Amino acid sequence: MPELPEVETTRRGLCARIEKNVIESVVLRHHTLRYKLQENLHDILKQQTIHTIIRRGKYLIFTLDTGALIIHLGMSGTLRLLPTSTPLKTHDHVDINLSTQHTLRYNDPRRFGCIIWTPNSPLSHQLIQVLGVEPLEDSFTADYLFKQTTKRRMPIKSLLMDSHVVVGVGNIYATEALFLSRIDPRTEARYITHQQCQLLIKTIKSVLLEAINQGGTTLKDFVASDGKPGYFSQQLHVYGRKGLPCTNCQSTLVNTVLGGRASVFCPVCQPEMP
DNA sequence: CCCAAGACCTGGCGGC
DNA sequence: TGCCGCCAGGTCTTGG
């Protein structure tokens, strides 16, 4: 499900509604997500106040009184704020009940997400500390990206999706940004020019910002914390459009597999490079 | 160190 | 209808 825009949409929706709320209880219904859930989560979290929710890459970080909760939505997770009396659905794995008679409900069919408690600074947690730059911050520059590409034979698309380089750019937005930059996704990173890096920086930022403005991309099951879908899927140029005409030149879009991920592109607008 | 492939899970879809 | 293989928004681990 979620790339950066979907996680940011979730964060914004929750921030306004649960900051300063107090946790009353925690219910675990499935005890293993990507990692095993800490069994005593209820004892640790009860009576703690939620101070803020920040985002780092695709991770949501809830800062509480004595530590932080680090949550990832994996491929299929959603986090919704519902009245506590709302009936359960399949794959509702965790409830965080608030004193407002509302519940933060974590649903994740594939269970690739995670919920981790840390009593320390969340930014120094092993999972967070190793992350690359934020794509929407000023530190994500052409110089930075160009430096990362040198000597690397990995396809440029895989590099853009490597969270140790830049966070939050998943399959949808990497695919779209490469189309908008007119770069073949298969191109070895080392052949990408500085000028192309400049283009990529520009298109990645704009595609992410535009998606956030549209409330994210809903393909199958993404909904924001209020249950609403995102609308960015209506303006995807290439992602999910294999075999359909290019929106720019009408050529047939083709698919290739890179790093095990579908990668659709236009063979005319995104010419083979080296 | 770099990179590709496999692993983790469930559900939905198309094809037979 | 029913079963089967394939595919899906992520990312950690393994092994060459």
Keywords for this structure?
four-stranded antiparallel beta sheet; DNA-binding; 274 residues; single chain; 24% helix; alpha+beta
Helix content: 10-25%
| Beta-strand share of residues | 15-25%
Number of helices: 7
Strand order within the widest sheet?
1-6-7-5
Task: Label the structural class.
Answer: alpha+beta
Low-pLDDT stretches are none
Q: Characterize the main sheet.
A: 4 strands, antiparallel
The secondary-structure element order is HEHEEEEEEEHHHHHEE
Distance between the termini: 33 Å
Question: Would you kindly provide a written description of the structure presented here, covering whatever features stand out?
Answer:
The chain has 274 residues and is α+β, with helices and mostly antiparallel strands. It is built from seven helices and ten strands. It is 24% helix and 20% strand. It has a four-stranded antiparallel sheet with strand order 1-6-7-5. A hairpin with a 4-residue loop joins strand 3 (59-63) and strand 4 (68-72). The mean pLDDT is 95. The protein binds a DNA duplex (16 and 16 nucleotides) through residues 1-3, 6, 34, 58, 72-76, 91, 108-113, 127, 151-154, 158, 161, 163, 170-172, 217, 219-222, 239, 259-262.
